[in-house]
Amino acid sequence: AANRALYISDMRVAASDLIGRNTLRSRSVLDRHFPQPGDNDHRGWEWYFLSSQTNSSRFAFPIQEAHEVAGSPDGKILATISQLGVINLWDMSAVAHRNTLLGAHGTLNAISWSPDGRQLAAGGDRRAIHIWEVNSGERLRTCHAHQTSITRLAWHPDNVRLASGDRGGTVYVWEAGSGQILTSFFAFEPN
Which runs of E-coded beta strand occur in the chain? Predict the structure, then answer.
């Protein structure tokens, strides 16, 4: 019973360490439960799952991460949106956190990279589209027009136009550099 209680406690510690991005300590805690020759193997699915998350070839996102994800056009950066609306950029080759984009508030539902990979747009429940310059992390502009939550974003291949769709069926096409609306239309009638 004491061994089981220690195991359960250690699995909680290992999970907490992963959330805090302390994979080395998590790995150390997990290794304490690796069976020695002749011992019974008391590890459950949680040990195997947590162990797989400490593998250096994988990302171990905090639990609140990855509400929405989008890879950069060159495949070098992964952008994630947490349920809290935080945008994190992850370096895919170094398997490490690169930057956090600040300035958006509320739940974000959509994220999209510009085709050249220099800008990132995000939109959500506060009905605003935010556009950042990726390398500097600077928020370039915020665009407002939607009357309901933004659910989709897509850049045109020309790097100039950005389309946004909302829960009510309205689509706006923006000139991303100025934030001006070029056109709008209803894509469907909401239920």
Answer: 68-71, 77-81, 87-91, 96-101, 108-113, 119-124, 128-133, 139-144, 150-155, 161-166, 170-175, 180-186
